[in-house]
Design goal:
Shape: globular
CATH class of the largest domain: Alpha Beta
Mean pLDDT: 91
CATH architecture of the largest domain: 3-Layer(aba) Sandwich
Structural class: alpha/beta
Largest sheet: 5 strands, mixed
Oligomer: single chain
Distance between the termini: 46 Å
C-alpha cells in the first residue's frame, strides 16, 4: 500500500505482482510493463523468483524482505525528507497496470486510471454499506483486484479498520483477532473453513446435533465464533463458483454467502448479490452504473465506471476485448433473468468438441458435480474422447482422512451416486463417462491454479494427457489414480 501511494505521488504507474509468480513470468511482466523500480517485501519463494528480475530494474528492499544487498526503505527514509508539496494527479491519468492471472498463456496488462479506482472504491462501499465502523482482514495478495479494491482503496475513502495476516499459519488466529464485519473469500477458502470444522467434529455427527432444537443455535453460534465470523454481516465469495452443497451448509450455519462477479478488466466491479437475495449459482445483479447484456452465443458484455482503458501495448487484443460501445467482451457465457440477476454458465474458450463431433461446455457439468461435498476442485475434459471424463481433487477433509489410513469406500460410493444423479440431468453427449480421483493437490505453487485460485485447464490436461485415454477405456465410473 505504501508503494502504491508513493508511486502515485511521484507521478508513476504501479504494477502489482503476485508473490507466487514463476521467475520467467516475473521477467516477462516487468519487461512488458517497462517497469524501472521493484519494491521487494516479505516473500517465501524469493530465491526462486529473483532470477526473473531484469538487470536494468532497480530493487528497493522493505523491512521483513528476504536478505539482499538492495537499497532499503529505511535508508531512503533516513536520507530523504518528506515532500513539502501536495501532489495532484488528473483523474484521467493512468494509475495502474494490473496483469490478469493468466489461465492461458501470457497475462495481459489491464490499464486503469484514477477515475476508475475512485469509482470502484466509492461504489463498492455504497453497494455493501461499508463504513468507518467496519473491520476487514487482508490475507489475499494486494495484487488481487478484489483485495486492492476492498482493502486498500475502500479504506482510503471510508476509513475502515484493516487487519493483516502475519502468515497462512496464523490465518485462524488473525481471524479471531480481527473479527471482520466484512469478509471476502474464494470458494477454496470457504471449503477449507468447512474442512476445519469437520476435522473437529465429523459431518454426520454435526448434522445429528443440528437436528436437536435445544442445541442447534448454540452449536451454530459456537462454530461461527470459532471461525472468527460471528460478527461478519457481509460474507462474499468470488473468482469461481461455490458449490451448492457448500453454499447450503453455510446458509444452515447462519452465514449468507453473497456471490459476486467481476474481473481484472473492471477491477472486480460488475455484479453483486444483495443481502437476503442469495441463490446458489447466481452472482447477483449489476452494480451501480454498470450496464450488462448478453451478446452472441450468450456472451456476457459489461461496461461501467471501472472499465479498463485497454491492455497495455496490446492494441489488437484490446480491440477484441473492448467494442466500440465500450463493453468488455468477458468471454464468459451467462443467463440473465428479467430482474437482471446473472448466472455464469461457462467460458467460450473452454468449450471442446468430442471425437463424436459434439460440443461440450465443461462449466455447467462441473457446477452440477460440485453438489458433492467430497469434491473441492474438478476439471471436465474430453476433446479427444467420445464422452467427457472428470478429473477430481478431493475435499481437504477427505484427503486428510485417507492420509490417516481411512477407507475410500464411502467416498467412492458417494461420488458414484453423484455422477449417476448428474448424468441423468445431462444430454447424451454431455454424460460423464468416468470420475477420476487424482493424487495431486492442485495449487498455485505447482502451476495447476492461477494466483486467484482458478484451475488452469490447459496445464491440467497436459499433465494428465498420458492417462486420460486409459482412464476412459477402463469402463469404471469412478476410479482412483494410484
Amino acid at each position: 500500500i505504501m508503494s502504491d501511494m508513493a508511486i502515485w505521488m511521484a507521478g508513476g504507474v504501479s504494477v502489482p505482482l503476485y508473490p507466487t509468480l514463476a521467475p520467467d513470468m516475473i521477467g516477462k511482466i516487468l519487461k512488458h510493463s517497462e517497469s524501472k523500480i521493484l519494491f521487494v517485501g516479505k516473500l517465501d519463494g524469493w530465491e526462486a523468483m529473483k532470477p526473473g528480475i531484469p538487470d536494468d530494474v532497480k530493487c528497493i528492499s522493505y523491512p521483513l524482505s528476504p536478505p539482499n544487498d538492495y537499497d532499503t526503505w529505511n535508508d531512503i527514509v533516513a536520507h530523504h525528507g518528506p515532500i513539502t508539496e501536495s501532489p495532484s494527479r488528473s483523474h484521467t491519468e493512468l494509475a495502474t497496470i494490473v496483469y490478469t492471472s493468466g489461465t492461458t498463456g501470457m497475462p495481459k496488462g489491464a490499464m486503469h486510471n484514477f477515475a476508475g479506482l475512485a469509482a470502484g472504491a466509492t461504489h463498492a462501499a455504497n453497494t455493501y454499506n461499508i463504513t468507518s465502523q467496519d473491520r476487514l482482514l487482508s490475507y489475499l495478495p494486494l495484487s488481487h483486484v478484489a483485495e486492492r479494491l476492498c482493502v486498500e482503496l475502500v479504506q482510503v475513502y471510508q476509513g475502515t479498520h484493516v487487519f493483516f495476516t502475519d502468515s497462512l499459519d496464523t490465518f485462524s488466529e488473525d481471524l479471531q483477532r480481527a473479527r471482520p464485519t466484512f469478509f471476502f473469500a474464494v470458494p477454496r477458502i470457504w471449503a477449507k473453513f468447512q474442512a476445519g470444522v469437520f476435522s473437529k467434529m465429523p459431518e454426520k455427527k454435526l448434522q445429528k446435533l443440528f437436528r436437536i432444537p435445544i442445541l442447534n443455535s448454540i452449536i451454530k453460534k459456537k462454530i461461527r465464533t470459532g471461525l472468527g465470523l460471528n460478527e461478519a454481516t457481509r460474507c462474499l465469495s468470488g473468482a469461481a463458483p461455490i458449490s451448492v452443497s457448500l453454499f447450503q451448509w453455510y446458509k444452515e450455519l447462519g452465514i449468507e454467502i453473497l456471490e459476486v462477479y467481476g474481473m481484472t478488466e473492471n477491477l472486480g466491479y460488475s455484479h453483486s448479490t444483495r443481502q437476503g437475495k442469495s441463490r446458489p449459482g447466481f452472482v447477483g445483479q449489476n452494480n451501480l452504473d454498470v450496464d450488462a447484456k448478453l451478446g452472441d452465443g450468450g456472451e456476457i458484455l459489461v461496461k461501467g465506471p471501472t472499465t479498463m482503458l485497454g491492455y497495455y501495448n496490446e492494441p489488437e487484443i484490446t480491440a477484441e476485448a473492448l467494442d466500440e460501445e465500450g463493453y468488455i467482451h468477458t468471454g464468459d457465457i451467462g443467463q440473465m433473468e428479467s430482474d437482471g440477476s446473472l448466472k455464469i454458465t461457462g467460458r467460450i474458450k473452454e468449450i471442446f468438441k468430442t471425437s463424436k463431433g459434439k460440443y461440450v461446455a465443461p462449466f455447467p457439468i462441473e457446477n452440477r458435480l460440485l453438489i458433492s461435498p467430497h469434491i473441492e476442485q474438478l476439471c471436465v475434459v474430453g476433446s479427444s474422447l467420445p464422452q467427457p471424463i472428470a478429473l477430481v481433487m478431493l475435499a481437504e477433509g477427505d484427503r486428510d482422512t485417507l492420509a490417516k489410513g481411512g477407507s475410500r469406500e464411502d467416498i467412492h460410493n458417494s461420488l458414484q451416486a453423484t455422477m449417476r444423479e448428474v448424468n441423468s440431468q445431462l444430454d447424451p453427449h454431455e454424460k460423464v463417462k468416468s470420475l477420476v480421483v487424482v493424487k495431486d493437490e492442485w495449487g498455485v505453487e505447482n502451476g495447476f491454479m492461477t494466483p486467484t485460485l482458478k484451475i488452469r485447464r490447459n496445464v491440467l490436461e497436459a499433465h494428465y494427457a498420458d492417462h486420460i485415454e486409459t482412464w476412459y477405456e477402463s469402463g469404471l465410473d469412478v476410479q482412483w489414480e494410484d
